[in-house]
Design a protein that fits this description.
Blueprint (H helix, E strand, L loop, with lengths): L4 H4 L2 H4 L9 E6 L2 E2 L4 E3 L9 E5 L5 E8 L13 E10 L8 E4 L11 E10 L16 H7 L7 E7 L12
Parallel strand pairs: 3-9
Antiparallel strand pairs: 1-2, 1-4, 5-6, 5-8, 6-7, 8-9
Length: 172
């Protein structure tokens, strides 16, 4: 049985196929670095995070941020919801050095615990990637295929639920 948090959390399967990570992804909201499965509230993710990708020297990367649980985890009819798309991120630099194709939109789940995934692809060279016409029903695998990005090189995710919800279940 796998202990890979991306498999356990369903990111591998729902968003991407299994891959061997060959780059390091750091995502920081303020001074808090996310770890797979960490819990953040919408107020903690209101502002665009700092994202750094280290991998192969001289490479460029594409970052996709999606929520596969929209509108609810039990009925994800809008899977995947695209929150952010940035291309041409130079290796070792912050995402702000890349090209923002779809601007950051903070996660605002209304029901249930949502997984928010960051997926990174290595680009063969800087390239133009066009913004999709909508954010709902985005498919990370299709983007990778359309632009010949290959398998992901890194990914991470956090859990997010609306402010004021208690999380977990109540027992009487």
């Amino acid at each position: 049985m796998s202990r890979d948090p991306l498999i356990v959390g369903g990111i591998v399967g729902d968003v991407v196929d299994y891959f061997d990570a060959s780059a390091r992804l750091r995502v920081l909201y303020g001074n808090r670095e996310i770890t797979n499965g960490s819990e953040l509230r919408p107020s903690q993710v209101a502002n665009q995070p700092t994202v750094q990708i280290t991998g192969r020297s001289g490479s460029f990367y594409t970052l996709v941020m999606v929520d596969p649980d929209v509108p609810t985890p039990s009925n994800p009819t809008q899977r995947e919801y695209l929150h952010w798309l940035v291309t041409d991120i130079p290796e070792g630099r912050d995402v702000s050095h890349g090209t923002e194709v779809v601007e950051y939109e903070r996660p605002q789940p209304t029901a249930g615990i949502h997984r928010v995934a960051f997926v990174v692809f290595r680009q063969a060279a800087p390239q133009v990637i066009y913004a999709p016409g909508w954010r709902s029903n985005f498919i990370t695998r299709d983007l990778a295929e359309c632009y010949t990005l290959g398998a992901p090189v890194a990914a991470a995710y956090f859990n997010c639920q609306r402010e004021g919800s208690c999380g977990g279940r109540r027992y009487r």
